[in-house]
């Protein structure tokens, strides 16, 4: 029996970008010591108070089918959060609760893209973006943002690729680069979307992790609220990665149709997880969760400032650093494998996130401060040795 080409072509005939991560996990399983700086998994787990709310809800009986769009109280809480942040009036009719941000990305592209539609996204990108676009039958079209511009996308470059496109996917604060799109960049993107009649899918899962500047949702810009679909999540803001709970915020008509899609796919999110998310949104934990990454970013800037081999791309947000290792003469993939095998330090190669990140590596700031600093010191020393030998 043949499998659907849509399934077998999810990775476009190439890799999924996770080879170094898989190798690191194999080494750990074999008993080898590896320092993991790969994925965006907090080094602290979900706060006990959130787990307590989850447990109380489950034991209280909220274990059956929950409302498919999301329980009203949680939709109201998300709407209030978004209204306060963006200044755009938002109600529960603008909110759909989803099983995490990844499901939201899948659903928003279903909403924006017909079969065979061209769907733009910014390169470097989170590794699942192209496969997500292919999974809805659309054609992924990367638009390069360059290191020399701080990985901020240029509106004229987006516009040049936009002929015949249906959507544009952006992510600010950005994974993998840490770039926070400033107002001028966001206004330029919005202008292209209005001129080209594009849906703008805005992945804002890192909106609580901003170290410089301010988070600006394009939904707040003139003429954009009816063409923006915002993807949000509790994973990064509240260390609830395994709970799989997120949302889509958008025009009421789009949300109504997305509820129909949810009905025939996920059939909602467990009620006890929704109750825990509702508690978490009111608990004021965002800064507590973000604080370690703020500290480690400052530590990294200090360490990297004492050498001149590894280049640090300015990071305005999120839990990652993008490092330039081109002085070694190696690409990111070769460097990451060598660093893993020779130093036992696992990082993600830039090439996992697109061509625009070639010659770079992504470092997740997700281990304890002292260990993180020591790992960076070793990484810099290793890079210097490689550069001298090049």
From TrEMBL:
**What top-tier enzyme class does this entry carry?**
transferase
EC assignment: 2.6.1.-
Q: Which GO terms describe its molecular function?
A: L-aspartate:2-oxoglutarate aminotransferase activity; pyridoxal phosphate binding
Q: Which Pfam families match?
A: Aminotran_1_2
**Which PROSITE patterns does the UniProt record give?**
AA_TRANSFER_CLASS_1
Name the Gene3D superfamilies for this protein.
Type I PLP-dependent aspartate aminotransferase-like (Major domain)
Answer whether the UniProt record assigns the keyword Transferase to this protein.
yes
Q: Which reaction does it catalyse?
A: L-aspartate + 2-oxoglutarate = oxaloacetate + L-glutamate
**Which residue range or ranges hold the Aminotransferase class I/classII large domain?**
34-379
Question: Which InterPro entries does its entry note?
Answer: Aminotransferase_I/II_large, AspAT/PAT-like, NHTrfase_class1_PyrdxlP-BS, PyrdxlP-dep_Trfase, PyrdxlP-dep_Trfase_major
The protein's required cofactors: pyridoxal 5'-phosphate
Tell me which Gene Ontology terms the entry assigns under biological process.
Answer: amino acid metabolic process
Is this entry keyworded Ribonucleoprotein?
Answer: no
For this UniProt record, give its keywords in alphabetical order, as a comma-separated list.
Answer: Aminotransferase, Pyridoxal phosphate, Transferase
**Family, similarity comment:** Belongs to the class-I pyridoxal-phosphate-dependent aminotransferase family.
Recorded protein name is Aminotransferase
What does UniProt list as this organism's lineage?
A: Bacteria, Pseudomonadati, Pseudomonadota, Alphaproteobacteria, Rhodobacterales
């Amino acid at each position: 029996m043949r499998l659907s080409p849509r399934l077998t072509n999810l990775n476009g005939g190439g890799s999924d970008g996770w080879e170094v991560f898989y190798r690191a996990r194999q080494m750990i399983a074999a008993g080898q010591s590896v320092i993991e700086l790969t994925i965006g998994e907090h080094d602290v787990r979900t706060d006990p108070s959130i787990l307590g709310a989850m447990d109380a809800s489950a034991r209280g009986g909220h274990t059956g089918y929950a409302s498919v769009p999301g329980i009203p109280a949680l939709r109201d809480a998300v709407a209030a959060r978004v209204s306060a942040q963006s200044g755009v009036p938002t109600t529960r009719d603008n909110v759909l609760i989803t099983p995490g941000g990844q499901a939201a990305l899948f659903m928003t592209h279903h909403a924006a893209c017909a079969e065979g539609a061209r769907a733009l996204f910014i390169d470097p990108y989170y590794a699942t973006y192209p496969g997500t676009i292919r999974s809805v039958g659309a054609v992924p079209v990367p638009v390069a943002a360059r290191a020399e511009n701080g990985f901020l996308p240029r509106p004229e470059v987006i516009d040049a690729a936009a002929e015949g496109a249906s959507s544009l996917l952006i992510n600010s604060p950005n994974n993998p680069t840490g770039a926070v799109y400033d107002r001028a960049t966001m206004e330029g993107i919005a202008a292209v979307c209005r001129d080209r009649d594009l849906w703008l899918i805005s992945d804002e899962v890192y909106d609580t992790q901003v170290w410089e500047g301010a988070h600006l949702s394009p939904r707040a810009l003139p003429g954009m609220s009816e063409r923006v679909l915002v993807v949000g999540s509790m994973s990064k803001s509240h260390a609830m990665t395994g709970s799989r709970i997120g949302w889509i915020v958008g025009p009421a008509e789009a949300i109504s149709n997305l509820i129909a899609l949810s009905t025939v796919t996920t059939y909602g999110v467990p009620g006890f997880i929704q109750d825990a998310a509702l508690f978490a949104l009111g608990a004021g934990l965002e800064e507590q969760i973000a604080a370690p990454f703020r500290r480690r970013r400052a530590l990294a800037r200090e360490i990297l400032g004492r050498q001149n081999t590894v280049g640090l791309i300015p990071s305005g947000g999120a839990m990652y650093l993008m490092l330039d290792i081109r002085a070694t003469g190696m690409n990111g993939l070769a460097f990451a494998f060598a660093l893993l095998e020779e130093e036992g330090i696992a990082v993600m190669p830039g090439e996992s996130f697109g061509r625009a990140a070639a010659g770079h590596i992504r470092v997740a700031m997700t281990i304890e401060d002292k260990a993180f600093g020591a790992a960076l010191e070793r990484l810099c020393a290793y890079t210097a040795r490689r550069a001298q030998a090049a």
